[in-house]
Amino acid sequence: MKLIKAYNNADFLNGDDARSVRILCEYLEPLSRLKSEGVSRAIVAFGSARVRRLTEGATGVDYFHDAAELGERLARWTTETHAAGERYHLVTGGGPGIMEALHEGSARVDRALNVGIGISLPFEQHGNPYLDAGHGFEFHYFFMRKFWFMNLAKAVVVFPGGFGTLDELFEVLTLTQVGKAERMPVVLYGSEFWKEILNIPALTRRGLIAADDENIFSYADSVEEAFTLLTRTLP
């Protein structure tokens, strides 16, 4: 009979009794790899995996194009103004849609700035082609994934998206509101979309948030405006 060491026992490691071990792995393994790759601060972008480039002749805001342009602007800015070990990485969920667009733009300058913090789902998610293997992460636990977004974030831009994007946005707003995260630039891209989806002033009128909480974030409707709001206070 061949004996199996505990750390090689797949049945145990994937079972309920080892959940705490798996959670710890999703903290320690990224911690080690991010450190070795020199990733310590980031501009984080959230947005829908379902957004695609507008086809020729289509009308409306081309969020894919804008995200790519913003990614390129941010990558060029940090490459030109920061030493190699001090540059901001562009962190997304690592998948398609807005995430891919931002990384496509950044890759025009330096794809090594791209970091993808993914989540294993039965649909939609896969690593986009602008990520190097060492900069791609896949998580099982949503809360550990969001921990790493917040741990690295020095600025956040949020493009239109669904439940997942809203969850990520409110994680940022809540942790900032209660002082668990330092104030940072938080930019909602596409004011028409966001003001339809979120009625934040109603929370203030009803006394559910303080008036100053509305200053946690800003709106932007152009790449230039978003770029300025994201970078003007970053060292």
Features:
14% strand; Rossmann fold; globular; 235 residues
What does this structure look like?
There is one protein chain. The protein is an alpha/beta fold and 235 residues long. The chain has one domain: Rossmann fold (3-Layer(aba) Sandwich). 44% of the residues lie in helices and 14% in strands. The chain has helices at residues 10-13, 19-37, 63-81, 98-110, 142-152, 163-177, 191-197, 200-205, 223-231; strands spanning 42-46, 89-92, 114-119, 136-139, 153-158, 186-189, 218-220. It has a seven-stranded parallel beta sheet, sandwiched between helices. Helix 3 runs parallel beside helix 4 and helix 3 packs parallel to helix 9 (223-231). The mean pLDDT is 95.
